[in-house]
Amino acid sequence: LLQSGEPELQSQLGLKTLHLNVSRADARDVLIKFSPTEGPSMLNTTEKGKAGKIHLPREIYRSLSSQIVRVVVTVLNIQQLNMFKEVNQTGQVLDDTVVTITVGDTSISGLQDPVQLTFAHRELPHVLCPCSWLSPHVVPVAGRTGGWHSSGCVTQPGDKETVCSCDHLTLFTLLLNPVLESSTAQSLIAVATAGCGVAMVFSIFTVTFCVFLRCRFRFEETVRINLGLHMNLVASLFLLNLAFLLNSTLSGRIQPGTCKVLGGFTHYSLLCCFTWMALEGCQLYLLFVKVLGIYIHHYLVKMCLLGWGFPILVVGVAGAIGSYGEYSIETTHHQLIARLCWITPKHLLLHYITNCSYFSLIFLFNMAVFGVVTHKSCSLQGTGAAKGDRKTWKVTLVAAGLFCLLGATWALSFLTYGISSAPVLYLFTILNSLQGIFIFIWLVILYYPKTKETTGSLSYIIRHDKNTTVSQD
């Protein structure tokens, strides 16, 4: 189809093709220019412009048996052609343009003198542009997956053009993959390390403060359970911050066995955080939605068994199949930024299931509960039920604290893919590394020093909600 000489068919399919006949006896380097709008044509050596260039070395023709060789260069607009929907594409194709080159009727590979394709483009900051070629199996066949590959091609990036040197002929393009610069990645690691260190200190303050309140003041059972849940969530955050600091300090300098243990500990800490966020959401659901007739014997103990025990099961299974080990973070040019003890690339499916999918479900549930709580709180303010010290700023404070408590800031991770993700990555890193500090400030303002008035602002709303429900019955 690509070598068809019918102009009408090529026009309908968005193909622009150049046919050349080259004599093997008079083999020479062939220079061709191409562009998405004008297609391919012979290049005048004195010609200048922004079009792409193709250099076909004479080695290609000398290895062929035919005396006269047909060279076909075709430029495809894949958006107009609409034929690569099933390709495992990990980036955006430059100008939606794919160039295919065939010489004769045989497959050509293993060239000592490579084919060179020069792709002209505008300045592309913070973008990895690998030279890629399309696997012959566009649709998965017999267990083989198709897609873009870069093996056999060397990429030489530039400000206005990128040169691809490949040892074979096939369909070529330039993929635009968003990446982080080394300086940005190093800055993010430094910010996260500093934030985690400070957050660990405040996590200790928070746990101490919660223990002090439970021992010093006589709160009702609901508030004591709330404080217990907050304390366990902050403890899991402390473990996660500790795991990150150990990772950034020790990984790359420890034995593989120790790295597996550290990777499992990091995964366990993260799962504990997510689980306790889910339990915070369940507690709010029971308090604000299922208001009446709730009593669970040894409620906090059972919560602790679930919050700390469930992640052990997941990590135990993951460790049994050898999922933990060294994980490397690299720059555009494959320069090592950092080594982490984490889930290995071979088991990334485990990461998507136990981390991404698990958190997505928790996030959806918690945000639904947060919406119900916020609606009821605003309704009480509107009816004048909440008077005195419960002003608008306090309601806002409670809402902001719950928003952080339920892990909503972790949802920023879903926005960190793309060329413009660096600011979001900074925001994600700062907010989540300082989550323990935010919770500490929220608890201090909410529960102390006016303990008689607040006794946990949540219980005030709960009591009023109960009275309202009983009166309506």
Overview of the structural elements:
The chain crosses the membrane at residues 188-213, 225-246, 266-288, 300-321, 352-374, 395-419, 425-448. Keywords: Disulfide bond, Membrane, Transmembrane, Transmembrane helix. The model is unreliable at 1-13, 86-90, 137-146, 385-390, 451-457, 461-466 and 468-473 (pLDDT under 50). With 473 residues, the chain is α+β, with helices and mostly antiparallel strands. The termini are far apart. 49% of the residues lie in helices and 19% in strands. It has 2 domains: 8-176, Chondroitinase Ac, Chain A, domain 3 (Sandwich), CATH 2.60.220.50; 182-458, Rhopdopsin 7-helix transmembrane proteins. The strands form 3 sheets. Strands 1, 5, 6, 7, 9, 10, 11 and 14 form an 8-stranded antiparallel β-sheet that branches.
| SSE series | HEEEEHEHEEEEEEEEEHHHHEEHHHHHH
How many domain regions? 2
Distance, first to last CA: 76 Å
The share of residues in extended strands comes to 15-25%
Q: Which CATH architecture of the largest domain?
A: Up-down Bundle
Q: Percent range for helical residues?
A: 40-55%
CATH class of the largest domain: Mainly Alpha
Structural class: alpha+beta
| Largest β sheet strand count, sense and barrel closure | 8 strands, antiparallel
- CATH topology-level fold name of the largest domain: Rhopdopsin 7-helix transmembrane proteins
Q: Supply the number of helical segments.
A: 13
| Unreliable residue stretches | 1-13, 86-90, 137-146, 385-390, 451-457, 461-466, 468-473
- Gyration radius over CA: 31 Å
Shape descriptor reads elongated
Q: Count the beta strands.
A: 16
CATH superfamily of the largest domain: Rhodopsin 7-helix transmembrane proteins
Mean pLDDT: 76
